[in-house]
Design brief:
This protein is an alpha/beta fold and 240 residues long. It has eight helices and seven strands. It folds into two domains: 31-104, no CATH class; 106-201, Lambda Exonuclease, Chain A.
Length: 240
């Protein structure tokens, strides 16, 4: 039985129902941890520390924060890190350079703000955390998500549109944005405005995904993520 949903759960199922089934239903042990996931978690945790310091009108060394969060993420990983083309030292250097570019926006009033919303009576509660809540220069509430990307802007914004629609149910706001940390040759920070999905569209999406989850649908989705998938060996064995 699914007792709650989250944006990451729903996105994980959409990306590959079989992977979601291995993790959430069968609870199989992970074989590996994608380096991209570990990197993203370390960046996220480092920026949370920077933003929390900004609330207190303080500043911290962002590069040093990433150094700590990256090493902690690697040490605490449940399975060996699958690095692919980038080794650990290179990712550490990239992460330190990336977060050093970040400057906290003004007006921050919430970091990693937890929430629970009831999207539909037929669905379990939806839980999550909002990366950043801030007030703009005229006092309007702005919901902000932080993303890393290979480019300066997100080209496909559907997932973050759904994510910010969910956040807006918890904290109705005037503005919605994503701060994109571009993993380009010279790291970039870009504020990208986002228009959240209408609530009716969000509700139908969650209904559809939840129905597929409880129905036991577990087809595999083949793509770039397969070599570093935590369950790649299980998946290969199940196909034989």
């Amino acid at each position: 039985m699914i007792d709650h949903l989250s944006h990451s759960q729903v996105q994980g199922f959409v990306m590959c129902p079989r992977k979601w089934h291995y993790e959430k239903v069968e609870q199989r042990p992970k074989e590996r941890t994608p380096a991209t996931l570990a990197f993203g978690c370390a960046v996220h945790d480092a920026l949370a520390a920077v933003n929390e310091a900004a609330i207190a009108c303080e500043s911290i060394d962002a590069s040093a924060a990433f150094d700590r969060t990256w090493k902690a993420t690697v040490a605490q990983s449940q399975a060996p890190i699958h690095y692919g083309k980038d080794e650990a030292d290179l990712l550490l250097a990239k992460g330190k350079a990336l977060v050093a570019t970040y400057v906290p926006p003004s007006g921050i009033i919430g970091v990693e703000q937890p929430f629970t919303v009831e999207l539909d009576p037929a669905l379990p509660p939806i839980t999550g955390r909002i990366d950043l809540i801030r007030l703009n220069s005229v006092g309007d509430l702005i919901l902000t998500d932080l993303k890393t990307s290979a480019s300066k802007l997100l080209s496909d914004t559907a997932a973050v549109e759904a994510q910010l629609s969910l956040y807006n149910l918890a904290y109705p706001s005037s503005g919605h944005e994503v701060i994109v940390l571009g993993k380009t040759k010279t790291p970039t920070i870009t504020f990208q405005a986002i228009v959240p999905w209408p609530v009716a569209e969000l509700r139908q999406h969650y209904r559809d995904v939840h129905l597929a989850m409880v129905s036991g649908i577990k087809y595999r989705v083949r793509g770039w993520q397969c070599p570093s998938c935590p369950y790649a060996d299980h998946c290969q064995a199940d196909r034989q």
